[in-house]
């Protein structure tokens, strides 16, 4: 396995690292501005994407829920976050108390509830993200159409590789 990179390869990977760091920092600032922790923010975004397909957020990601007027069950939210249903109950209690989510009766299962975003969650997301998403759209539009397929494939291939469970921490 070789680790010698060309200058262009190194610059590409450095740009990806900078993007990942900027995204992480932006989410931390958004969490702080909304007075929620990062997991709470992921929860709010997940519920909003499930209910409102035009939420200004990451476009159609593989793990994004499909728009549904029915909301998200706590079980589905727990699965999405990779946490227990007991932990999600505490999380949902916190987000209901903060005014970001509401619980509603499940339309077909009387034993369950669905989670819905509140007007507060919508307005905070819009206030903090709408302008940034407009700027990001302009940047994306400036990428030449002929370069887009290669750029998309590069980012998707890098994502697939990073998601693979190949890190061997036992080697020196």
UniProtKB/TrEMBL annotation:
Residues 52-73 are annotated as: Disordered. SMART domains: HTH_MARR. PROSITE patterns: HTH_MARR_2. SUPFAM superfamilies: Winged helix' DNA-binding domain. Residues 9-160 form the HTH marR-type domain. InterPro entries: HTH_MarR-typ, MarR/SlyA-like, WH-like_DNA-bd_sf, WH_DNA-bd_sf. This is MarR family transcriptional regulator.
